[in-house]
Amino acid sequence: MYHAVTPGTTRPAWPWAVSMLQFRDQLDFLAAEGYTTPTLGELIATPEKWPGRTAVITFDDGYLDNLAACEELHQRGMRASWFVVTGSIGQPPQWAEDGRPQGRLLNAGELREMRDHGMEIGSHSVSHVRLTEADDARLARELRDSKAALEDLLGSSVDSFAYPYGAGDTRCTTAVKQAGYRAACTTRTGWALRDQDPYRLRRLTVFNHDTVSTLARKLYFGSHDVGWRDVARHLLRLRRA
User: Fold this and answer.
1) Class level of CATH domain 4-210
2) Which of 121, 117, 119 is nearest to 105 (CA)?
3) Is 162 helix (H, G, I), strand (E, B) or coil?
4) C-alpha torsion sign, points 121, 61, 203, 234
5) Is 177 helix (H, G, I), strand (E, B) or coil?
């Protein structure tokens, strides 16, 4: 799970952003290690088709700097899934400031261009509200209206969703299904489909401090606890097994 990819080589201050240098290095690592990068929709539709090393690359929110990240993916023949807040398409984000990138989100033309490059565009709600705190009527609107807006914009079905802030419970999961989505991502750590529930998919977050080495360890362990002490404990458990 990525959010923002800032130009240049300097590590961003926002924890959920990476520099373009970090992003390129991480993509090159995935390519060198033989990872296939389907969209989330492709993974869910045909999970049996991806038996080898597979990494679904996702982006939340839809910041303008993601356009350059899309180009890097396209140049490498990779695909990714974007979860966009529809109420802020082409505008500055309308939800609470938390140190995120300045400027607007991707606009309609840019999202269509990304889709034409093989990327998946999914929903991240209308207003980036915590769905667990929304009443039933607003919950339904956030899911239904964002899906409809993207389908009108793209002229194709939108089947994937990501819970804002990763906040989702049984009521939210049921509402996502009823709104017509086929899959939904959380921010819970781990491998997707481990629980065999396409509406509670786990993800690994890529933070501003992540190097190729820490990303590799995250992918291997399916965890964020990838310090060298954690690795040593894991190896010790293997020796004792």
Assistant:
1) alpha beta
2) 121
3) strand
4) positive
5) helix
Look over the chain and give the mean of its residue pLDDT values, rounded to a whole number.
94
Question: 111 near 154, Cβ under 8 Å?
Answer: yes
Residue 229 clears pLDDT 70, i.e. is over it: no
Measured in Å, how far apart are the chain's first and last C-alpha atoms? 33
Buried b (16+ CB within 10 A) or exposed e, 82-114: bbbbbbbbeeebebeeeebbeeebbbeebbbbb
Measured CA distances, 214 to 36, 206, 209, 218, 226 (Å): 19, 9, 9, 6, 7
Q: Where are the domains of the chain?
A: 4-210
- The CA distance from 145 to 203, in Å, is 25
CB atoms within 10 A of CB 222: 14
Under 8 Å between Cβ of 214 and 225: no
Say if strands 160-162 and 58-61 run parallel, antiparallel, or are unpaired.
unpaired
- Distance, in Å, from the CA atom of 241 to the CA atom of 228, rounded to the nearest integer, reads 20
pLDDT, one tens digit per residue, over 116-147 is 999 999 999 999 999 999 999 999 999 999 99
CA 57 to chain centre: 6
- 70: burial class by Cβ within 10 Å (0-12, 13-18, 19+)? buried
At a CB cut-off of 8 Å and minimum separation 6, what does 194 contact? Answer: 202, 222
